[in-house]
Amino acid sequence: MRRLGLHSSAMFDYTLSATDGAARAGSFSTPHGDVPTPAFMPVGTAGTVKGLIMEEVDELGAPVVLANTYHLYLRPGHELVRQLGGLHDFMRWDGPILTDSGGYQVFSLADIRKVREEGVEFQSHIDGSRHTFTPESVMDIQRTLGADIIMAFDECPPGGCDRRTAEEANRRTLAWLERCQRRFGELEQRGSVPEQVLFPVLQGNVFDDLRREHAEQFMALDDWRGYGIGGLSVGESKPDMWRTLELLNDVLPVDRPRYLMGVGYPDDLLEAVARGCDLFDCVAPTRNARHGTAWTSSEGQINLKAARFKTDTRPIDPGCDCYTCGRYDRAYLRHLVASSEWLPVRLISIHNLRFLVRLGEEARRRVLDGSFDAWRKDWLERYRKKGSPS
Questions:
Q1: Which domains are delineated in the chain?
Q2: Does residue 224 contact residue 218 with C-beta atoms inside 8 Å?
Q3: Most buried among 152, 164, 267, 374, using CB within 10 Å?
Q4: Active site annotation includes 312
Q5: Whether pLDDT at 389 is above 70
Q6: Is the pTM for the entire model greater than 0.85?
């Protein structure tokens, strides 16, 4: 018998407004506002989107931001965040927040962690101190932080793993999900916790039957208010990723949002929207900015260190409405990057983040008016003409 989904009230409903093929336009309600989808979520790993103040993130039009449980647990500590008013007050962000479980970060520490049935023992990357994450402790930490959407603790197998490794990760992730679910409910009954919703994280690597089986097991366990799709963008081929998303689009309920974790390059975002995904996050916008790399709609990805931009007085992307493109040209930005100044990191981060947020907004508009598929094909053709003549 399927139980009611884990959510605190009538909040966390997903309204599907339109489809165009598998692409979807919808809206997900949270206590801190609605999230129109498709949507890109800027990553605020340690409670900040790197290099920006939260007023700037708001001006980008970002409807929701992501923070990281692993990093906030280690520093400054989730209890201190609670003492300081919870994550929204701590970050000075009054919109929706999603926290990931920290599982991906823990499993990335291959040389300094041990996986057991109880949980994962790991060493801090900061000072080498030893810690343990269990499904219960991860729920406790995320409940304390107070994000709107929290993620279940999962095991993310490495890209290119064999079938046996993927099967074991699926088994453990399902067992841990049941424990997360139980702990979430216990904390709810005790009261004094914020309104939150728990999303499970689907695994299965690129094995079609394991992906399908995992999704069916999750759906049999509960009527979840949304689903995280994990274990992609970890080294698999793009055809494998697209095939997996097409399979899950046929399996997952249509009236629940799908969050594709860790995917956020512009072309990947549009390809994933076309296969039924709604929410995305990635550190690439700010990471690329630190290397002078920006996205454009007609030249693809460009590196502003290049000599060809020395006298280029155009904005990064002439069609972009961001602060940077409205005030600065490529020649000036190239000068700043070549001079190893800090300012271009901020300016290019603002552009890259707005580029992805705007891409999600435009994809939504196109789904609503029924032109998404034709627009996507034209946009991708132009974007993939990398290095087209100036």
A1: 14-288 (3.20.20.105), 291-383 (no CATH)
A2: yes
A3: 152
A4: no
A5: no
A6: yes
